[in-house]
Amino acid sequence: MNQVKPAHVGYFFGLSVVELAAQLRTGRVTSVALTQAALDSIERLNPTLNAFVQLDAPVALAQARKADELLAQGRDLGPLHGIPVAVKDNIDTSDYITTYGSAHFEGFRPRRDALCVQRVREAGGVIVGKTLTHEFAYGPTGDRSLQGAAHNPWDPRCMTGGSSAGSAAAVVSGMVPLALGTDTGGSVRIPSALCGAVGFKPSYAAVPLDGVFPLSTSLDHVGPIANSVEDARLLFEVLSARACAPTIPEPGTLRVGWIASGSFGPVDTAVDQQVYLTAQQLFGDTLQEVTELAAVAAGMKETLGMLQRAEAFDVHAERMQQAPQLFDPEVRARLELSQEVRGWQYIRAQAAQQQYQAQMASLFECYDLLLSPSVPIIAPAVNAREVRVEEQDIDVRAAVLSYTSPWNLTGLPAISLPAGQVRGMPVGLQVIAAAGEDDRLLQLLAHQKPT
Amino acid sequence: MNQVKPAHVGYFFGLSVVELAAQLRTGRVTSVALTQAALDSIERLNPTLNAFVQLDAPVALAQARKADELLAQGRDLGPLHGIPVAVKDNIDTSDYITTYGSAHFEGFRPRRDALCVQRVREAGGVIVGKTLTHEFAYGPTGDRSLQGAAHNPWDPRCMTGGSSAGSAAAVVSGMVPLALGTDTGGSVRIPSALCGAVGFKPSYAAVPLDGVFPLSTSLDHVGPIANSVEDARLLFEVLSARACAPTIPEPGTLRVGWIASGSFGPVDTAVDQQVYLTAQQLFGDTLQEVTELAAVAAGMKETLGMLQRAEAFDVHAERMQQAPQLFDPEVRARLELSQEVRGWQYIRAQAAQQQYQAQMASLFECYDLLLSPSVPIIAPAVNAREVRVEEQDIDVRAAVLSYTSPWNLTGLPAISLPAGQVRGMPVGLQVIAAAGEDDRLLQLLAHQKPT
Question: Which chain B residues are within 8 Å of A346, Cβ to Cβ?
Fold first, then answer.
């Protein structure tokens, strides 16, 4: 759907992992060549985009050489074998410094890989570097970290969104074909939507969080960022250590709901129209309007806030006491507020989360998929905290989270797909499925052709 | 071990449920006769002890008549069939008003029986009335409730301890042979120890809490109060809906640990010596001193406090906002403090609870049973809040909870056995077993003869 290119693009722009995997096996390319291409693209584009925060060419190339040797010996580890992959810097890697985007961890090298990274390595993936995360993933704008702000490949004056800021910028600009992100309120889907990538937040607990720096353990997820649903699915299979079932023809017509515009907060009308148009192209013009979510939106937001704040402060209490000056001021201000959540409010939020999960399970008895814009606005300027939408000044952080965070609270699988452009910037269509229906969601979308 | 009687005793003093069950089956007594004996005893003793807060003779006698009719038809519901049982007033009964000890629920009649009450009825037990609970079970002294204070059968100037104040007084004085209590920090074992009953707190979740007014859901337990381990075991089998396995001869010698005196706080030396003597009589003089608990006592107390306060405020937040004046002032003051626990502190307390549970599991790899005084002092005067112990003024509420509450935090089964007297008042020996070893604990004690 993207007919135009970002201003600056790298080697992997427009390439699919499936094609690359085929070329690796015919010997037309090598993993070393692909990894060198990634490193060259990063060298050229990163001064503009600030997507990567840690690189180590010898480390990356050594992995690539090993992948080539194994393939040459006939040991094929699967579709990711030899493919360059970027990893968000809040995910532990034993061979790259991992800062979690914070001065608290400047120069820190974890002793072990995160379990999800280990799985990528076991599947033959080549980790080419670490991508910028908003400090401790505690922010949806991607512009506050030890390493500064990431910049949007479509217009570097604009934010990428976050917190998986660098991963989305790296994939969209073609520095790498695949990246790992994390998503606690939308942190995979928001930068994917604002930069024009496919970003998938799986069902809660589908991908293990061992070795991922926690933000909010009730809401944290790991997921892939890619250029196509097919590629995202390949990486998800590896991350979740399960093979998606082969495609099963769906009986009858899909029941697809369009979440009534504005249900979760203000939407830029042009974004809404562009996303709805894309939804109709994919699913036909029989979308049913789903009106019941507006009534629960405020409660869901409040509940998610209570859980996230209490859990985030639990993680950072000692740092807030011992070295508060090392936090970015905006992140520190959020943590100061987080301290105030009371124990009884947290208990009630846990109970409310279960109720919302039950309500969504009921709703999905009537629908196969629900659709909405992933993010109700286009990427604002880096560091912007207010934007004017439909003659209202709205808070950027609240706005970008508003349509994604309900699916962290309820743990449902949700994906952001590129849905064309508004005023020259990408917008995303969010597609949500019932809990545990990750495979089916990815299969339906991989095989859905615009009508 | 009690060679003397309380000042005032009722019909069931010194009678065992096993004997009564035999007499019911030979026709020597009827359930109606036993129930009438209970009502007569209550009528005579209750003005002094204030153990029962709700009675309804026709309701009780109708249950008894039904029990007699069933037995006459040859339908024997088991060992509790026709036996009078008292129920603590924080446990729902559809046929008796249930106030939870609070002016907030004056005259309240639940629509349904609690599940544990339903099980007693299905086993043929006759509910003869409701016993005094400290308001909302939120206090270990048994002297603050809508219905005032309960009084100790051994000296009515003294407190019973609580919160299952009336249940312990009713059983010890012989008003009824069995009663249900609840235990969140010691509320079954404390009044059992201070009044001279057998009080058993089962493993966490061994008895369902449906229909029991919550105090702190991580710590709440339901358990029996009786005059012997054998009787407590009969009621526990019914409450937990499982039959204890028949006694298995224990291979070798029991490994019994004595928790080093003072580990969980100050102890009256005379109480300590009397309880230790009883422990030696029961288990021989090979008790091993367990010294490692003193180091974790403060942390366990702090953890339990965080959980209990946050969870208690969750239960009462609306009442505290809308009608705080209806609470007893002391209970209200506790709730005001409870509001202050932070969400992140609650999360850490949950994690700490799991660690203490794991530590106790390790400790019980070295021991079959651990022993301590149930309560480190004898019953103080009703309403006393400080007592002088070993030339120190100590807080009564903290003291009576100090040796029982660690086993609520860790969820281990713990029983208080009568262990003789100190200065004319009963003291209790607490026996603790590994998680899930409820049946074995009860069997070991039922068959343990003084050496």
Answer: 310, 343, 346-347
In this structure, is residue B2 part of a structural domain? no
Q: Tell me the per-residue pLDDT of B269-320, one tens digit each, with 9 for 90 and over.
A: 999 999 999 999 999 878 999 999 999 999 999 999 999 999 999 999 999 9
Angle at A44 between CA A181 and CA A12, to 5 degrees: 55
- The amino acid occupying position A436 is G
Residues of B in contact with A338 (CB under 8 A): 344
| Spatial CA neighbour of B440 closest among B227, B287, B254, B278 | B254
Residue that is written with structure tokens 């249940």 in the block:
B167
Q: Which domain holds residue A209?
A: 17-239
pLDDT at B451 over 50: no
How far apart (Å, rounded) are the C-alpha atoms in residues A41 and A49?
A: 11
Q: Report if residue A333 sits inside a domain.
A: yes
**CATH number of the domain within which B185 lies:** 3.90.1300.10
Distance from CA of A206 to the nearest CA of B (A): 23
**Which residues of B fall within a CB distance of 8 Å from A345?**
343
Q: What is the pLDDT of residue B245?
A: 64
pLDDT in tens, A26-36: 999 999 999 99
Residue B326 shares a structural domain with residue B235: no
Number of domains in chain B: 2
CA–CA gap between residue A158 and residue B326 (Å, rounded): 58
- Same domain? For A231 and A269 the reply is no
Contact at CB, A342 and B341, closer than 8 angstroms: yes
Determine the Cα–Cα distance for residues B433 and B415; give it in Å rounded to an integer.
9
Q: How many CB atoms lie within 10 A of CB A374?
A: 30
Which of B193, B214, B239 lies at the terminal end of a domain, its last residue?
Answer: B239
Residues B159, B65 share a domain? yes
From residue A361, give the alpha-carbon distance in Å to each of A177, A347, B43, B96, B370. Answer: 34, 22, 55, 39, 47
Residue A1: what pLDDT?
Answer: 38
State the nearest Cα–Cα gap between A219 and chain B, in angstroms: 14
Which has the higher per-residue pLDDT, A309 or B447? A309
Question: Does pLDDT of B444 surpass 60?
Answer: yes
Any domain includes B3: no
**pLDDT recorded at residue A3:** 44
- A135-147: burial string, b at 16+ Cβ within 10 Å, e else: bbbbbbbbbbbbb
**Does the beta carbon of A347 lie under 8 angstroms from any beta carbon of chain B?**
yes
Min Cα–Cα distance to chain B from A133, Å: 24
Classify residue B8: in a domain, yes or no: no
**One domain, residues B274 and B392:** yes
pLDDT in tens, A108-163: 999 999 999 999 999 999 999 999 999 999 999 999 999 999 999 999 999 999 99
What value does the mean pLDDT take over residues B65-79?
96
**Number of residues written out for chain A:** 451
> Is A163 known to be catalytic?
yes
Whether residue B160 is found in the same domain as residue B265:
no
Give catalytic status of residue A164 as yes or no.
no
Three-class DSSP category at B408 = helix
List, in sequence order, the alpha helices (H) in B97-240. Answer: 115-122, 165-172, 189-195, 229-239
Tokens of A287: 């979308």
Q: Read off the pLDDT of each residue in A47-70 and give the average, rounded to a whole number.
A: 98
Q: Are A164 and A197 in contact (CB under 8 A)?
A: no
Number of Cβ pairs < 8 A linking chain A and chain B: 61
R_g (Cα) of chain B, nearest Å: 20
**Per the structure block, which two tokens stand in for B28?**
């020597």
- Regarding whether A380 and A270 lie in a shared domain, the answer is yes
ipTM score for this prediction:
0.90
